[in-house]
Amino acid sequence: xxxxxxxxxxxxxxxxxxxxxxxxxxxxxxxxxxxxxxxxxxxxxxxxxxxxxxxxxxxxxxxxxxxxxxxxxxxxxxxxxxxxxxxxxxxxxxxxxxxxxxxxxxxxxxxxxxxxxxxxxxxxxxxxxxxxxxxxxxxxxxxxxxxxxxxxxxxxxxxxxxxxxxxxxxxxxxxxxxxxxxxxxxxxxxxxxxxxxxxxxxxxxxxxxxxxxxxxxxxxxxxxxxxxxxxxxxxxxxxxxxxxxxxxxxxxxxxxxxxxxxxxxxxxxxxxxxxxxxxxxxxxxxxxxxxxxxxxxxxxxxxxxxxxxxxxxxxxxxxxxxxxxxxxxxxxxxxxxxxxxxxxxxxxxxxxxxxxxxxxxxxxxxxxxxxxxxxxxxxxxxxxxxxxxxxxxxxxxxxxxxxxxxxxxxxxxxxxxxxxxxxxxxxxxxxxxxxxxxxxxxxxxxxxxxxxxxxxxxxxxxxxxxxxxxxxxxxxxxxxxxxxxxxxxxxxxxxxxxxxxxxxxxxxxxxxxxxxxxxxxxxxxxxxxxx
Length: 531
Known about the structure:
Layout: H1 7-12, H2 18-30, H3 32-46, H4 51-57, H5 62-65, H6 71-76, H7 83-86, H8 88-107, H9 116-145, H10 150-170, H11 173-179, H12 186-200, H13 202-206, H14 214-228, H15 235-254, H16 270-292, H17 310-333, H18 335-347, H19 350-366, H20 370-399, H21 401-425, H22 429-457, H23 463-482, H24 485-491, H25 496-505, H26 508-516, H27 518-530
């Protein structure tokens, strides 16, 4: 719903001190993508790896698309000796950051040519703990802003986006500047990156832990499950088995479909088959939940007429941790709208992912140096994103999230056409700067509205779980399909212009889908705003 606030009142939202901590955590969230994304691509390119190999190396980002698997545990599990002192959110942030620092340092000690498998393993480690860090940081942002109106969520989304790009593009320029200096190597650059990540850990020690009653509410939901489970027999166990089957299917697709039965199903249809299989399992999952009548109720005491068995206690804990966040999302929104929202999230940034995965390779093949990439791709993109994240959030606050998504999506697709022009013109630095400027502006605008939408759709009892589910679904589409970007370029015989035109067209299905669900989605956003 568009805001009735004046422009001055809208800008006043950004005076909130909590937004500074969100910005700093955003930097820490974006920085691991440097080690496993742009810096890794540049390193592998300098070592002579092919475009297809570099593109497939991006499969380590599958952790960002499946981090919803372990996101519920970030809500419920406590880290020994740390959580009691720093709180649930900060302790998880600290825990993940330690492993990111250690893995990045270890990368600086390896040789890519002879230890490529170890490089991939360390990259996977950084991606795993980076995606886990994102779960805790996003939950922290929503928790610290909960209880206020949705305009604070839009402002927080802008600061998180600006922070992320500061970590990814601003700090991400450092390794490219270093390796272009005499006597500097990529391993030495990664050593510097490990030091920077260690410095970013300081934020978690300084900020305040959000105050929530999530633990009490989750215990109440678990008590409700314990009250009704004795009447359900072993059916809840079937529900719990469906989820890992879905998860295994997603992982199987992302690791290249090993031992695929080509004699029965052609390799050309394996992605379609797996996708339909996952959709079928999800449909069964929702149907079984409705039949079991495991209604989520809060403030429910445990009946003392029976002592729960061990199997019932374990099942109730697993249902509360793993199933309740999904069940609540579908119950609150309805099955059709819930699936429509998830499909839009899956499609929205697909074209941007294809472009992003191959951008560094494209810059190098066109003729730009590492320093050019640092100054133009990183620094300009960084400054542009910060400015237009704030402008985009002001627009979103005043005119609504859906308008922000429509404008951001159209602009993102159109900006990709400038890369096609670059492919024709060649290494023109003025065009490079203009293209990066427009791309940073459109990405920032779309990202702010996108993050604001997902934040508003979360139930505060299941912040980490539901936000991670929706974000990882969008990342799954970008990572799983975007990882084949190098193969697409090779299939096009290196025709970069046609490749970027295709990435521009990819945004159209998501915008059409958003248009058809705009009315029920608007009602849902308004209802959440009034609650």
